[in-house]
Amino acid sequence: MTQQTIAVVDYGMGNLHSVASALEHAAPDVNVVITDSAHDIERADRIVFPGVGAVRDCMAAIRAHQFDQLMSRQIELGKPVLGICVGMQVLLEHSEENNGIECMGLLPGKVKFFGKGLRDEQDNHLKVPHMGWNEVHQTQHPLWNGIEDGARFYFVHSYYVEAANSEQIAGVCEYSERFVAALGDKNLFAVQFHPEKSHDAGIQLLRNFSVWTGNA
Amino acid sequence: MALAKRIIPCLDVDNGRVVKGVQFVDIRDAGDPVEVAKRYNEAGADEITFLDITATHQDRGTTVATVEKIASEVFIPLTVGGGIRTLDDIRSMLNAGADKVSINSAAVYNPEFVREASEKFGAQCIVVAIDAKKVSAQDEPDRWEIFTHGGRKPTGIDALEWAKKMVEYGAGEILLTSMDRDGTKDGFDLGVTRAISDAVEVPVIASGGVGNLDHLVDGVKKGKADAVLAASIFHFGEYTISQAKAHMAEQGIEVR
Question: In this protein, which residues make up the domain named Glutamine amidotransferase (chain A) (predicted)?
Answer without folding.
Answer: 8-209
